[in-house]
Amino acid sequence: MEITKLRVSTKAKSQKNLGFDEELEPVSPTTEYFLTEGLTIYALCFFELAVSTDFPSVYAFLNDVFINAHPRFSSIPVEDKRGKKKWKKVEVNIKDLVVTPVYPEGLSIEDYSKHFDDYISKISTSQIPQDKPLWQLHIFNYPTKNAAATFIFKFHHAIADGTSLMGVLYSCYKQVDDPSKPLTFPSRTTPREKQSHSMKKVFNIVPKFIASIFYTFLYFGQSIKLSYLEDDRTPIRSGNTEMNPDCRICTVNLSLTDIKRIKSTLGVTVNDVVVGILFLGTRLYMQEINNGLLKNTRSTVVITLNIRSDKGYARVEEMWKHNAKVPWGNRFSGIEIPITNLEENDIKNPLKFILKAHKIIKKKRNAPFAQILLLWCLGVVRTCVGLQAAAKTFEQRSKNCSFLMSNMIGPIEKMSFAGHPVDGFYFMPTGLKSSLTVTVMSYMQMLTIGLAVEKGFIDHQKLITCVEKAFQLIFDAATTTS
């Protein structure tokens, strides 16, 4: 395989007209963790296209739209005279940031799909040099089993978290059916409890306040515990946390309509349903690898949590405001959920995996101060011991848990990327020292579960089959119940 960089001589346009400060900007504390030597995490965003690449349109989009969408896309991290990390604006030549792999012409779709998997495994562990802006666009302009061509944006996590990055990307993309309209997203609704009498609500305030304090310290303690006590080694956790394992990225596509049907039947959220499916699916996989034996293990998933006051997306101009509801940057934490053990009769009652997950997630979401305490604790470690120690503590939970899970909401309409209709869309963080990472992305009427598995340890095809089986068991049980 030969890799070539596209020769584009056009320089990106200046961003002075956007009103952003061109002086050196300090990086946030969380961003500094991602710029340390031991904690380098990237986010890969996959766009499965319905057509082959029109390169002139892509160049024009990157130069005229994308590079001007946010100053981080034309900035590099530098150190000031006091050794503090800052963002510095630089002139960008797009040719340095766009990469296309070249393969022989005339191969079969199966062969190109294998090349695609190998290429993704390679770029998931490669480093982006810090003397250039911390992003790349990889263009795999060959047909695979899922697309006519595939665009892969690779972002260093120091730029921002998923909420910020997706907000920028979505503001740059268009609806296929009506490019004049912005993309729209599903409403974020959760099941509401029945309204109680006003006096009863008053009498409930005190016990709820006391309970919130209790659960805040309980969940904070659980987070600290996972930072020092690792999960059991199982068929989904090798315990090889001293290096970034080579990974294979694969996907499971489910009908969002079917997921919502389960959600409505059980009175839970879409996220609860997906967590329940993954819990049952991973337990079924463990059972199969253990030759049918049921083993109780200490296994935990860390679910990333957006800690902004507003959980939706916002345009760049809104994120950059001083008191923005959806501010730019890395503003996330994580909640720990124990993976329900599989018992003999659970195949007949698979809904318990969703209901247990719903109960725990609801309690932890209602104790947000536990996340604030955790971030405060990291600040104390940084002040007392140093940045490297704080970054290591920040990473420890993801190393000790069985897998990390992150979910995002995609648009309802079909979108286009520089005039290229997008059939499928998902994302995956890489650089995590774990055997399994899971992402969830809704797009149109499809829900895509992304799986990054440790090569040579997890059988990705068996895991996919177990997740699909878990979905079918849960769907059948839910529709029978309804």
Features:
disordered N terminus, 2 domains, transmembrane, Chloramphenicol Acetyltransferase, globular, 6-stranded mixed β-sheet, 8-stranded mixed β-sheet, 482 residues, alpha+beta, 17 strands, 12 helices
Could you characterize what this model shows?
- This protein has helices at about 30-35, 55-65, 110-125, 160-170, 200-230, 255-265, 270-290, 315-320, 350-365, 370-385, 385-400, 460-480, and strands at about 1-5, 25, 40-50, 75-80, 85-90, 100, 135-140, 150-155, 175, 245-255, 300-305, 330-340, 405-410, 415, 420-430, 435-445, 445-455.
- The protein is α+β, with helices and mostly antiparallel strands.
- It has two domains: about 1-175, Chloramphenicol acetyltransferase-like domain (Chloramphenicol Acetyltransferase), CATH 3.30.559; about 205-410 and about 435-480, Chloramphenicol Acetyltransferase, CATH 3.30.559.30.
- Strands 1-6-7-8-3-15-14-9 form an eight-stranded mixed sheet, sandwiched between helices.
- α5 packs across α11 and α6 (about 255-265) crosses α7 (about 270-290).
- The protein is globular and about 60 Å long.
Give a short summary of the structure.
The protein has helices spanning about 30-35, 55-65, 110-125, 160-170, 200-230, 255-265, 270-290, 315-320, 350-365, 370-385, 385-400, 460-480, and strands at about 1-5, 25, 40-50, 75-80, 85-90, 100, 135-140, 150-155, 175, 245-255, 300-305, 330-340, 405-410, 415, 420-430, 435-445, 445-455. It has about 475 residues and is an alpha+beta fold.
